[in-house]
């Protein structure tokens, strides 16, 4: 054996700056500095300013949060609108998010009560996907753990769809949720389609033939027994999906409950109008279990589209009432209400497509 030659390239190393004891102590100190982990991530938001115009609201919300979680330390304001304040900070050594409803009206208070009930149920019945864990709750306030990640899309109907890999992972997470069977009586039962059809009929969307076709499909699906049920998120939309390093995380479980199979898939299908390949995969997944699953998916599509068209029509009306809504944006973009009008046109196209599919399904009986 020959002695090892000198290296061809010599790496220049800075002089050791470790503890006393020469280079060995320096290497130990350097190793400790390398393995030291950073603290828990805190979500991005506006800076906490208690002296600003909304300082009084933030102070009231912070007092309500610290009454149920004294160790909560605020860092950022994630949201301050619609009578709700959302703060990000630390609860002890864990990154946390606190939500406080300052103006609990009838509808807002009911939604918060449902959200709180679902978060408490998740402590006893863990779903097959990751959800933010409840830390503390009480008095229209709850504190949950913060999940690092980015929102799939801040828009309810994204004009620029997320990446294909993100959408495929989201679809897989939704399917795992739909296949979950929690204990009976834990989550509410939302299978009441007669009331939903009666709600949307006065808006002029559903014709007499539409109602007849939907009742025919419901009769075939239910038969003589109870209608099939499937647990779902209820609002499986891109703003409610966090893409974390460990996979998609679904948030905002206010509408979770039992519905006809395919409701979450129908919600995703309606929201992803700019992703035809994902839509095709959603349709194939919804029809993989045969004709009853396909009929349930079509019924859910009609109900979800009726809701989204109604919301979009109201948004277009509000945009048109604002001054300057007909003029283009200074940056060269479309007018403030133009995007909503284009979305409304696409939703009506989807409505016509779904109506033809339902009539074809009824015609094969």
Automatic annotation (TrEMBL):
Gene3D superfamilies: 3.90.1200.10
Signal peptide span: none
Start and end residues of each Aminoglycoside phosphotransferase domain: 107-292
Region (Disordered): 1-25
A GO term, aspect molecular function: transferase activity
Keyword Cell membrane (UniProt): no
Keyword annotations of the record: Transferase
Name of this chain's protein: Aminoglycoside phosphotransferase family protein
Source lineage: Bacteria, Bacillati, Actinomycetota, Actinomycetes, Kitasatosporales
């Amino acid at each position: 054996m020959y002695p090892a030659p000198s290296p061809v390239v010599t790496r220049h190393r800075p002089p050791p700056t470790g503890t006393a004891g020469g280079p060995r102590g320096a290497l130990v100190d350097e190793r400790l500095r390398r393995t030291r982990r950073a603290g828990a991530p805190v979500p991005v938001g506006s800076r906490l300013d208690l002296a600003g115009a909304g300082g009084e609201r933030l102070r009231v919300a912070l007092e309500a949060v610290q009454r149920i979680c004294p160790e909560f330390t605020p860092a950022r304001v994630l949201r301050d609108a619609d009578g709700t304040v959302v703060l990000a900070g630390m609860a002890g050594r864990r990154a946390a998010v606190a939500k406080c409803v300052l103006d609990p009206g009838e509808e807002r208070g009911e939604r918060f009560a449902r959200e709180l009930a679902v978060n408490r149920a998740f402590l006893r019945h863990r779903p097959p996907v990751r959800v933010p864990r409840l830390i503390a709750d009480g008095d229209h306030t709850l504190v949950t753990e913060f999940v690092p990640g980015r929102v799939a899309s801040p828009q309810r109907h994204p004009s620029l769809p997320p990446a294909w890999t993100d959408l495929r992972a989201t679809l897989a997470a939704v399917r795992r949720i739909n296949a979950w069977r929690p204990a009976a009586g834990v989550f509410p039962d939302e299978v009441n389609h007669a009331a939903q059809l009666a709600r949307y009929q006065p808006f002029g969307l559903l014709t007499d033939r539409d109602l007849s076709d939907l009742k025919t499909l419901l009769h075939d699906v239910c038969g003589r027994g109870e209608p099939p049920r499937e647990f779902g998120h209820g609002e499986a939309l891109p703003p409610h999906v966090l893409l974390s390093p460990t996979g998609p995380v679904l948030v905002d479980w206010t509408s979770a409950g039992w519905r006809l199979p395919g409701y979450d898939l129908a919600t995703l299908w309606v929201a992803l109008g700019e992703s035809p390949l994902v839509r095709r995969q959603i349709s194939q997944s919804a029809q993989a279990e045969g004709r009853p699953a396909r009929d349930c998916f079509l019924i859910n599509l009609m109900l979800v589209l009726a809701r989204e068209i109604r919301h979009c029509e109201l948004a277009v009306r509000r945009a048109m009432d604002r001054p300057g809504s007909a003029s283009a944006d200074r940056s060269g973009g479309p007018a403030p209400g133009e995007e909503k009008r284009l979305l409304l046109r696409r939703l009506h196209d989807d409505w016509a497509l779904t109506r033809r599919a339902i009539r074809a399904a009824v015609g094969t009986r």
